[in-house]
Hints:
Blueprint: H1 3-21, H2 24-40, H3 44-58, H4 60-78, H5 81-92, H6 96-109, H7 114-131, H8 136-145, H9 148-153, H10 158-168, H11 171-174, H12 181-188, H13 193-207, H14 214-226, H15 252-268, H16 271-286, H17 294-327, H18 330-338, H19 347-362, H20 365-383, H21 387-404, H22 409-418, H23 422-450
Amino acid sequence: MDQGLIAIIITVCIIIGAIKTRRTVECMLLGSLVAAFFAFQGNFLAQWCVVLQEMLAEEVWVFLVCLLFGALIAQLTASRGSFGFSKYLAKICSSDKKTFLTTYIMGILIFVDDYLNVLSIGACMKKIYDDRKLPRESLAYVLNSTGAPVCVLLPISTWAVFYANLFFEQESVKAMGVTSPMAAYLKAVPFCFYPIITLAFVFLFAVGAMPKLGPMKKAFRRVEETGKVYSDFSRKFNHATVYDQDTDGNIWYFLIPMGVLVGLAVATGDILVSVVVALVVCFVLYVPRKVLTVDEFMNNTIQGFSDMLPVLTMLLVTFVLKDICGKMGMTEYIVEKTEPLLFPAIFPAMVFALGAVLAFTTGSDWGMSSIITPIVFPLGSVIGANPVLIMAAVISGGTFGSHACFYSDATLLAAQSAGIDSMEHALSQLPYNVIACVLAIAGFMITGAVM
């Protein structure tokens, strides 16, 4: 049996097992070991450890960003700066609709990076959602749906820079006569159907025009019947959630570090440096004013690291599984089997579907895009498909993978930020993802036929 097919079967089994057991890490870990056995045979355990070390080294930037964000959130919480900001926002969020719309607008405004978007907004909105008795699943949905979808639609973001430079290397894109990578990217933005539809769905959800579906409906019913904003299964993610209603926080203890963080991220495009500087600002702001002692500041930093360990564990196992499945040729197998089905009119829709499936099964959006881009653009050029729609299809497919996959970094961080289990978040937003995906395919089918 082809190893690419074996990798697909293993991935499908992991997804089914995680949904059935709610033991995502365990299923991913077991799946990665099984994949290693087929990929490396008798030496699989040693090779699995080698891949583990390689992923730690290659993805160290992601781990550092997550750890330092955890530390920053811990400092903002300990200084009560986030509570001060939450109390200010609570005056605006006087209804469920205003609460959702405030989260939605903040998600659009913080467009530089999806990590920055999800983690920073979750830190200040979680308490408001709890006070208003809104399920955490709804917070995670809004956070995740205004992360990557916003980042891909605005040219001043890490996603836009990545995709623009990736596409500009393709001959069919240069043949359009564009003068720069960003000029090419901007041509594709109006046709990025999945992120556009997703943002429209979130707005409708916020104003109450989108019905509550499936697990999301059950989450709202749980709150009505029990008052629990998160399920018993997610209790382990909220052991440190304590809200002191009698103590006012200084809003500037939140706004100054966050202002520095966002400002530097916009100016430099370096999220890692920005969060380090924000932590330094926290130290200078809190310690001399005796808001926190040096010992408290360091203990909070370590606690913030600790709070991020569950999501980092999942990310590491995800990276290992993705790398081993890549070595087994899963992506190449799927591309090879779908190539005979490609025709000019439906090519953009097929590219979107292919990218969505690959990004969902691998948990890798940028990785998927990097692999299929050199394949789909020459193919599209040969059969006469529109390169603008191909760009939009690749972007949309990557966005779907980031948004919908239950072990993608965006989904894990949204769940972490909202304080719920990643599988509960993934399943509660899945109906909306699927509907948006179907509509996006229809959009690419129509535009592929007329352009």
